[in-house]
Amino acid sequence: MAAPDQPVQLEGNHVHHGRRRPWVVSNISLSGAGIHGKLGELDFSALPFLTFIDLTNNTLHGLIPTEMGSLSALSYLDLTLNHLVGHIPFEFGGLRSLTQLGLSFNNLTAQIPASLGNLTMLTNLVIHQTLVSCPIPKEIGMLVNLQALELSNSSLSGEIPTTLANLSQLNFLYLFGNQLSGPIPVELGKLTNLQHLDLNNNNLSGSIPISLTNLTNMHGLTLYNNKISGPIPHEIGNLVMLSRIYLHMNQIAGPLPPELGNLTLLQTLSLRQNQITGPVPPEISKLLNLQTLHLAKNRMTGSIPARLGNLTNLAILSLSENLITGRIPQDIGNLMNLKVLDLYRNQISGPIPKPFGNMQSIQSLYLYDNQLSGSLPQEFENLTSIALLGLWSNMLSGPLPTNICMGGMLEFIFVGDNMFDGPVPWSLKTCKSLSQLDFGGNQITGDIALHFGVYPQLTVMSLSSNRLSGQISSDWGACPQLEVLDLSGNMFVGPIPPALTNLSNLRELTLHSNNLSGDIPPEIGNLKSLYSLDLSLNQLSGSIPSQLGKFDSLEYLDISGNNLSGPIPVELGNCISLRSLNINSNNFSGNLTGAVGNIESLQILLDVSNNKLYGALPQQLGKLHMLDRISQFIPQSVYWKHTTLLHKHGEPTNA
Q: Which domain holds residue 417?
């Protein structure tokens, strides 16, 4: 074993043997000492008095030597965070003085030896993040002094052994991140000292055993991402010490039991992505310590209880993707510590309450895909911490708040598909934090050159189908992260600024249905990442620049409905990824170049009608076997709405 980079700490005592008093090593403590090499290079047979070994956080590799099983005085062994391989030695069953054993974060394989059941002095057994597999040996149930058992993030399979019910001293049982199956054993209800039960990320099935509600000392119940079904037992109200419940991503059905209101110490209740029905029980309002309430992606009905406004410690309230109706209660404005409000994809109607302006801690507000109406309250301008505003697909009207970005935190604003009118909020011009904006499908007015600035973090800008006017500013070319620019369906005039061709990350450029004029800039060939280019229904003139042939990634090209003329350049045949090509209703002349027939990826649309082309169709068109229809319809790409970070607060991993 190679020498460490720092001095070795060895402890021991003098033992009298005749006239000599040699030093006997009893303690090896070398955590994070930079040791590398093989553990077997250390002669453990010469160290029979060892009681303590801590070799955590080194780079030891190779097998664990079986000779370690002869260290009968050893009470502490921790080999966590190394590169050890192979199996856990069966000989470890001889370490009968051992009280703590840690083997986590290694590449250990095979099974956990049944001989570990001999270690009846053991209080902590931790084997986390390894490659061990096979079932949990039932002999683990013989470790009657065990207080913490963690066999997690490995490949253990089979059912949870009922013998674990013998571990009457157990405080922590962590079996998460394996491939365990079958029901949760009813016998676990005998572990009356248990404080934390974590079985998440397995394949467990069946219902939650009522016997678990006997565990009145439990602080944390974590069963998420399994196949647990059936209702939550009403007796869960007996677990008055619970501070965290994670049951999300299961198949739990039925209504929420009102007895949840007894759990007054509860800080997190996560039940999202189940099959829960019925209303949000008003008894939830008794949980005054609650900080996170996740009920999204269920089948819950009824309205939002006004008494949820009593939960003034709440930081996350998520009720999205249910069948909730009615109005947002005014009392929600009392949640002054709320950071995330998630109500999207329900059937909520009526206006957004004025007391929303009191929630000055709010960072993410998701109200999209509902039936909200009316104008935004002026009090919205008080939300200076907001980073994400999602209001699209409602029936909201009136102007947007002028100083929506006064706090300088706004990153995502999605208000498309409403009936907003009035000018672009003036605070957006200097909103340097802006990353994604969608105003599409409203009646917003103003001069695009005056109301928007330069945004160093901007990736998506959609202003489609509004009443905006003016010329497209060259400033858009100074937004280096921009991937999607959609200015279609407005009243923009003037040329396409060549500065747009500086946007090396641009994937979609959509400018159709405006009054743009002039030539297509030849520099457009610099947009190597372009996926979709739609310049249709404008007044563009001149010829197709040959530089369009540089597009290796372009799949959709539509320049129809302009005043373009001249021949179709042969270079267009170099767009090898093109799936849809529409050049109809222009003034193109000459023969249809045979190079178009080389674009074997064409499969959605090829439309060259209403031009001045003549001559026979090129034989190369016979190569387009995938082209199954000619249509005036081209699917408009909306890839960014599906890949956008709509949930900046994220889906909880354990919440």
A: 403-525+637-655
